[in-house]
Amino acid sequence: MKMIDLGNTGSQVSQIGLGTWAIGGGPAWGGDLATQQCVDTICTAIDCGINLIDTAPGYNFGNSEVMVGRALEKLDRSSVVVETKFGLVWDRVGTPFNKVGDRQLYKNLSPESIREEIEASLERLGTDYVDIYMSHWQSLEPYYTPISETMEVLNELKAEGKIRAIGAANVSPEQVMEYLKYGDLDIVQGKYSILDRAVEEALIPLCVEHNVVFQAYSPLEQGLLTGTIGKDYVPEGARANKKWFQKGNLERVVDMLDSWKPLCEKYHCSIPTLALAWILAQGDFITILSGSTTPDQVRENIGAVQIELSQEDAKWMREQAEALD
Description:
By secondary structure, the protein is an alpha/beta fold. 36% of the residues lie in helices and 17% in strands.
């Protein structure tokens, strides 16, 4: 497994990490997975050379963190880079975000909320520190908190040893610069796939300039780029309102994936592995979150790091995707 430097921390993270939103289960994913399956998947990721495990309280109201905590009981804690998040709450006031099932999530990045959230996350994870603590979504009125205040408490948590690195997800370039004004920002997380390349315009160049790792989430577009979804698929749950799952778009994506099959034969890989390899081909500063939910999916997806995708083939794949825009 290829490792990359985590900002200026002196630590390294694997170029593929395990995202555990789906492992958290709940209404967004049609129910919970068996605990043993979740634990086996996480442990398999570590056995395969992945050291970065991403989770969040907002993934099924803490259940994802609980599953990660169960796995940590079986692992060498020092060998795992645990990344969890803050800023999405359901048990206190905040700016309304999504409703999951019959429960409402709120955005709250106040220092008081962050203090309470880190303690709850540490308890669910069964650990006394988090390697990367990341803002999940950014603050909005009417419960707006300046980034300066958020960073002040994060810097305090670092000094106390409860967190070791700071990250920010779903940020604009302007917000990244604001974080950097008040301390170290080591990693930025954003949505990035061959179908969604908006971060290439300004966010990724900014990360490269400031030695900030860029972490891609939803690189397989919530399973659409696995090649296992047919043209007659009716999206539900977390996929229901997503652009590429809509009728008219879905069919064109399926046709594009069919056109990839000669490349899959050339590189001796599957469609999802090729989709991940395309992202990795964009630069050594990128780490991918792969949302595997079974050990077999983990083993398949890590094959992306073995593929040396040629510039010509990467360009052709980009052109195929651009034709869908």
